[in-house]
Task: structure prediction
Amino acid sequence: RMSTLPMPASVPLRVTLLQRMSDERLASPELCNVADGKLEDGTCWLGEGWRAAAAAGLAAAADFNARNGSYVPQFASEAMRSCGVQLSLTVLDSGSTPRHTLEALSSQSFDPHVVV
Result:
């Protein structure tokens, strides 16, 4: 007879995910276009490759929370299923510069447990 372990209590882990979504150094349309970006309201939003990298991080966190082992088999392991940690993500744009990153981090209304 197989025994079923009760699900552990959910424990939120606040994670701030820094993503390179824009580049504040590329303020002109010419420079932004060279980077395959799109200039909107003075911000150069980076191209598809950077958006794909941002999406991959979000997908990994969703898979972790769901204990979905499709891409990372360990997420579906017995040890992970008995782990109550749930990632609570906040995504911040680094602006591709240390100054922009620090401004974004200091503008958060809460302190994260982890910054990635």
Remarks:
- The radius of gyration is 18 Å.
